[in-house]
Amino acid sequence: MSVINTDVEVTSNEQVAEETYALRFHSPALAAQLLPGQFINIRVSDAVEPLLRRPYSISSVHGEECEILFSLLGKATHILATKKPGDRIGVLGPLGNTFGYDRDFGTAVILAGGIGVAPFPHLTRELQRREIPVLTFLGARSAARVVSRNLAEVHVATDDGSEGFHGTVIQALADYLDSHDVERPRLFACGPNAMLRATQAFAHERELDCELSLESEMACGFGICQGCPIERTEGDRKYALVCTEGPCFDSHDIIFHEHHHA
Amino acid sequence: MNTSCTLGSMHLKNRVLVASGTFGYGNEAAPFTDLSALGGIVTKSVSWLPRQGNAPTRIAETPAGMLNSIGLANVGIDAFIAEKLPFLREIDTEIIVNIAASTTDEYIRILERLEAEKGIAAYEINVSCPNVKEGGLNFGTRCDMTETITRELRRRTERTLIIKLTPNVTHIADFAKSCENEGADAVALINTLVGMAVNIRTRRPVLSTITGGLSGPAIKPVALAKVYEASKAISIPIIGIGGITNRQDAIEFLLVGASAVQVGTASFRDPDAAAKIAHGMETYCREEGVDDIQDLVGAMHIDAGTAAPGFVRNREQKEV
Which of A87, A145, A239, B146 is the 20 to 30 A CA-CA neighbour of A10? Predict the structure, then answer.
């Protein structure tokens, strides 16, 4: 395994939902190494603006190509959205840990909020390879924002009721669990911090195994800036770094605070 | 071609160091760059006890720059010596340990502890961190405190002693002069500028500590002017820091009076940046027919009759 810090060629970039894009780039080295849950840090431009790279989950791997999903948020994503086949971007990775797909459980229950769906196609393929049943609960603002490609057993929940369950993804999951027998579930959640905090509370209340994939501001992605702390529940260190000790954490290991407003 | 540089008792193979707090303890960036291509590594600040650092949010991107409020998160002196130093001393480069403390006694205690350890070429004294409640900037914004620390540490080490100065003062040259008077081998400047960012949706400051330290290309012009100001006041070497992203930036710092430079925020964007800059400076020298890079230090030409900026009070004038 070797880390990559190089420029790569964009091979496709298509809009897949409202303000949401799937961008592929050619990198045999990353395609061969990236495991579900890991991320890469992307430099969208040679200019000093935006200065820092942005972390993106690897969404899926197709031969020698890797795909990321992103929604328009700020400067970097607006620049990314303009990339065309043949354009170059800087990639650095693989970074971070992986989802605990090799743990002992019966059913993988995926919870995604908004663009938090990004890491799950790659995880789904790995779970299917291992013949582990998958249930997916996708939360989105509206039907126009649902990105359900390369997932399995998808249940949609929308804030405005324009598709699927009218409410949060956690309410949709609660309803499902109340009316179905799910064999030894393990939750895999990614989304805004408010959703992750609610997922954590729900999992603990129901005594479900749960891991959370976090997003954080980070300057480097590999541990030198110390800019992405998340509070730990125990141990002699107060904080873990999302970039090197995460982004996937057991729900019992971390504490969300109100100021994590994302 | 000679790219080397001597600072006190320390000999650097080239003039590019990585700045404290932007390169961890070397091991984190090792997979991404050839550490032996660096003139030296300045470690993350080391304090007597481990420091957990500030609550999130610790960083915010700003135009051509970034704010940080890490709060000197570090492993503390015991773990530094036991866990970090063994890796560092195996690297074919000079190791400069950055020391942070909240009292003069604590600075002394840390330095004396490190004196017993092999593989350290120099100390860089952080009297200028804007992100901790006690100590830090309090020392660096008072000339008398800067003098006391420099004097007390100078008495206790033969190793190269570098004082890292803050730009958050009226005349940085006065502080550089204090360091020179008390026997420092070099000064490093600038540390970050105090700055802030606000989220208009939440109507809250972005950083948990409200203000933080600004770094990156945005501060380079300020840093250049501060180095220039200091270079007019002192004769000990200056290490220039502030937004250096490529070889051109680095050469600019040499021309205004820096003997060496530190690459900071650029390493976040590209962990190989400092090594590339060291290589690029060599290329520049070949292109320009410069045999000894020392010839570039302070070599900026100022046309006769150009008015010096108000802050420049050269040594002779000041002693009158």
Answer: A145
Q: Do residues B138 and B34 lie in contact, with contact meaning Cβ atoms separated by under 8 Å? A: no
Q: Burial-class residue B171 by CB neighbours within 10 Å (0-12, 13-18, 19+).
A: middle
Is B269–A217 a contact, with Cβ atoms under 8 angstroms apart? no
Cβ of residue B215 closer than 8 Å to a chain A Cβ: no
| Mean of pLDDT values over B222-234 | 98
Q: Look at residue B316 and tell me whether its pLDDT is greater than 70.
A: no
From the CA of A218, how many Å to the nearest CA of chain B?
7
Confidence of residue A256 (pLDDT cuts 50, 70, 90): confident
- The three-point CA angle B121-B95-B175 to 5° equals 70
Q: Does the structure show a pLDDT above 90 at B131?
A: no
In the 8-state DSSP scheme, what is residue A247? S
Q: What percent of chain A has pLDDT over 90?
A: 95
Q: Which amino acid is at A89?
A: I
Within 8 A of B56 by CB-CB distance, chain A residues are: 216-217, 228-230, 259-260
Collapsed DSSP state (helix, strand, coil) of residue A193 = helix
Q: Which residues contact B164 (CB under 8 A, 6 or more apart)?
A: B20, B98, B124, B125, B126, B127, B128, B187, B188, B189, B191, B241
β-strand pairing of B40-42 with B16-18: parallel
Nearest residue in B to A93, CA atom: B32
Helix B104-115 and helix B143-154: axis angle, to 10°?
30
- What mean pLDDT comes out for the span A78-107? 97
Rg (alpha carbons) of chain A, rounded to whole number: 18
* Nearest residue to A118 via CA among A152, A85, A150: A150
Query: Which of A225, A241, A244, A245 to mutate against chain B (most B CBs within 10 Å)?
Result: A225
Quote the pLDDT of residue A1.
59
| CA-wise closest residue to B260 among B289, B226, B298, B286 | B298
Say if CB A21 and CB A81 are below 8 A apart.
Answer: yes
Q: What is the pLDDT of residue B137?
A: 67
Catalytic residue numbers of B read: 129
Picking from B25, B61, B198 by the largest number of A CB atoms within 10 A of its own CB, the best residue to mutate is B61
Sign of the torsion formed by the C-alpha atoms of B262, B264, B266 and B271: positive
B208 touching A, CB under 8 A? yes
A234 touches chain B (CB under 8 A): no
DSSP state of B46: B
- The fraction of chain A above a pLDDT of 70, given in percent, is 98
Query: Which residue type occupies A179?
Result: S
Q: What is the DSSP string of B92-111?
A: SSEEEEEE--SSHHHHHHHH
Q: Is the pTM of this model over 0.90?
A: yes
